[in-house]
């Protein structure tokens, strides 16, 4: 608790110091002459469709003290208008309806995967490979593993402003370090260091935990949803809902013995009372469980305006940890995954601006801030949010090696997959029966993906 209080005080001191000192982070004046021979856009309008306008600039009705990050974003957008001679217009009007007006749609779009996929199907997005001014190897727009959810039929359409926004995943595992120490449990980083962070070690460990703390029942694992746990475990065993590639074709990846064994293993833990579905507050506030598996943002947000059950807003010493890998997996099979409500950005080739010019402007807007190693959020998490370097390193492993749940491709059939996984864990069906029921449906979807549908 003392460490947490000191960290909060240090964070406040840092904000005050960077706001008042001449050593405050400075915006990089990024203009690459090799990439752009047109730096003056003659006052053109640059339409930026986003669901989160308030995260990019200080709006007139903003009633809270802006964070340092928001102040820097606001300054960056102001400077872009001056330096590039553009008029940035934020909008939430539908891009497809805008196209129907005959004046072209918006230049840059920032929304969740569901909507970005709709814009892809409407034919208004540019494949990133065809945008000469966007360099996907730069690290500025995310890494290949993380961006699987923005790849449609073998082409990359989605990007993520890696230096400015927290990358998020689900199926992320957290543990309560203070609770573990209170009854002599092992901090899982020790298992990682020994190279034995796997299912067998994990099961042996959680079966040794006490069943209560005083008069309060204690569970080994609480989960946001059973299917979130199931997918994390399947991914940790080197399995995915749809397997294959564009060249060899796609198939349902869970109708096999390895998937049955994964879900049967979880069912045995469930039957023995080690797993329960519960809200994150049972992990962060009431200390009723040792491990929690759910959305990563539950362990990231330290914004006092957000839900007070978020881990950084409590005094508990928590940590992120990769899911222990299964017999067919390795330490790179971290369990976490991206899905259809996660944030994604895309460029339009049906806007009034040339798509390469859109790329030039996007590069300027989302260049990192001088004084930070590469991303403001990394500095924030490593130095002022997380309790240990191991937590920070594990979080990086989660966002650099996630799988994808194929939510937009599965469409309405996603619920069938989720039900099959959940029913297998809770014993409503055996895994083989539950997954066999949906095999034909998911295989048809996979085959259509191979055909580019």
In short:
This protein has 16 helices and 19 strands. It has 453 residues and is α/β, with parallel strands linked by helices.
Explain the overall architecture.
It is a single chain. The chain is an alpha/beta fold and 453 residues long. It has 16 helices and 19 strands. The strands form seven sheets. Strands 13-10-14-7-15 form a five-stranded mixed sheet. Strands 3-2-4-17 form a four-stranded mixed sheet. Helix 9 packs across helix 15. The radius of gyration is 23 Å and the shape is globular. The N and C termini lie far apart (53 Å).
Give a topology summary.
Blueprint lengths: L1 H19 L5 E2 L16 E7 L17 H17 L1 E6 L3 H5 L8 E5 H9 L29 E2 L2 E2 L15 E5 H6 L5 H7 L4 H8 L5 E2 L2 E2 L1 E5 L2 H11 L5 E4 L3 E4 L4 H15 L3 E3 L3 H4 L4 E6 L23 E4 L15 E2 L4 E5 L7 H11 L3 E2 L5 H10 L3 H12 L2 E2 L2 H4 L3 H13 L4 H20 L3
